[in-house]
Amino acid sequence: MFAMQLKAHHTPLEWVELPDPEPGPDEIRIRIGACGVCRTDLHVVDGELPHTTLPIIPGHEIVGRIDKLGSNVMGLSLGERVGVPWLGHTCGHCYYCTHGMENLCDHPLFTGFTRNGGYATMTVADARYAFPMGDKGEDKDLAPLLCAGLIGWRCLNKAGDGKKIGLYGFGAAAHIITQVLRWQGREVYAFTSPGDTQKQDFARSLGAVWAGGSDELPPEPLDAVILFAPVGALLPAGLKAIRKGGKVVCGGIHMSEIPAFSYDTLWEEREIVSVANLTRQDGLEFLKIAPEVGIKVTNTPYALKDANQALDDLRHGRFDGAAVLLP
């Protein structure tokens, strides 16, 4: 197999040839059709997440077909298309696993972070954490659903059922969740980097009722906002954008330092909540409704060898929607 491998933080990924991985008893080997490029991959490359396994093959929005089955695998078949998300394994016996919070497991494994991911032609995954994807749709359009979609869905559930929802950072997750919100009959208010009229136009084209810079206030107080951009200064900005009793949901795995803000910005029962990882139930729920919503993913495809360029383009916001690597 061929892969783009991270050998040291703050360095480019290297093109390497490795032996085809052999699945363990509970694992499947997958021939990859597409792998999405996520901002979390940038955090891994930049060394912003603790306990990264190095060397590592990044990537956790994987779609491909099963090439080999482990001896204990049930319910999946050779040639079946599956998706592999960020959550790659949990212990099953800690407090969180036994209380319906496997996303907070004390001893997890994460795809593309502590176990090899999808910036490759082939990978191995724990079969219990892979989702059947069916045969409808192209691999490149399904891959971003495995993180941008799933984390967006979990954030949306945390945000509650308010009518007016703000989204800070209009990238892969926001452009998917905007479509879900519109399908649910809710209003989307999109916040981009100040002056980024291209992203604002993109948000409006997907149904946002308002789009502006993150330094602006919306035309009216919002019921909740979701922060997809990993910028700490957006947290107090989000608090100022919501009504009394509203909620700010922090959707990233990493965020820059949050500046101090006065208590009156939080007062009147405004809430702040973070989202960590996802559960398999999140995946089952979201992948069930995605076809009903008719989500159309805006993709920029890159060859696998061009993963470094894709990451750089993501870092600088050079494309709308999502980026996907194609082996």
From TrEMBL:
Its cofactor is Zn(2+). One of its GO terms (molecular function) is zinc ion binding. GO terms for cellular component: cytoplasm. It comes from the Bacteria. CDD domains: CAD2 (cd08298). InterPro entries: ADH-like_N, ADH_Zn_CS, ADH_Zn_typ-2, ER, GroES-like_sf, NAD(P)-bd_dom_sf. Keywords: Metal-binding, Oxidoreductase, Zinc. Gene3D superfamilies: Medium-chain alcohol dehydrogenases, catalytic domain, NAD(P)-binding Rossmann-like Domain. The keyword Oxidoreductase applies. It is an enzyme of class 1 (oxidoreductase). Residues 10-325 form the Enoyl reductase (ER) domain. Its EC number is 1.1.1.1. Belongs to the zinc-containing alcohol dehydrogenase family. This is alcohol dehydrogenase. It comes from Gluconobacter roseus NBRC 3990. The lineage of its organism: Bacteria, Pseudomonadati, Pseudomonadota, Alphaproteobacteria, Acetobacterales.
